[in-house]
Amino acid sequence: MVPAGTDANAARPRVEGDREQEILAATLEVLGDVGYDRLTMDAVATRARASKATLYRRWTNKARLVVDALHATKTPTEVPDTGSLRGDLEQLFCGASPGDGLMDPAQVALLGSVVTAIARDADFATAWREQVVTAKRAVSRQVWERARERGEVADDVDLDLLETALPGIVLHRVFVLGDEPTPELVARVIDQIVLPAATRGR
Predict the structure, then answer these.
(1) Angle, CA 140 vertex, CA 188 and CA 190 arms, to 5°
(2) Is CATH 1.10.10.60 the right assignment for the domain spanning 8-71?
(3) Range 85-198: architecture per CATH
(4) Looking at the predicted structure, is the pLDDT value of residue 201 above 70?
(5) pLDDT at 11
């Protein structure tokens, strides 16, 4: 029984640590199976072998739950430092080992499963941009600013525009044209589009 004067929600045990990671992993599994639109808190609770009340102690709705799960998946925490813009971009988007970054089919599939949600669910879109996109762009921006300090990027280049060119082109070719996300594709975009644009007028 909750003592008088104590907030009932505050008295409940928090969902954290390994249990939180298990629920987030179950969320990604359900998201991969059915997509965002058909994902429900009930389905995640069943997959995680938890009660729906347990989920609601930590997440107010499925948008917040899915965003937390996506945020926990391979968000880069260290900025690549290969000594060149080309090397840093390759490592950022291809990963330090095979199967990382855009080369990870599971990551690409998860992104595809939330594309429609970004357009339809304003709460999800806002949370996704704040928690997932912001973290990834912070790492990307450090790569670009460091390249500019090394003299690899012309002073008049718009970094806000150019830093989105590589993921934008690659994901367009993957989702719209049906291409495979390969290191070769990333390298072609870097060499033929990104680097020439970065050094224009230098």
Answers:
(1) 10
(2) yes
(3) Orthogonal Bundle (1.10)
(4) no
(5) 38
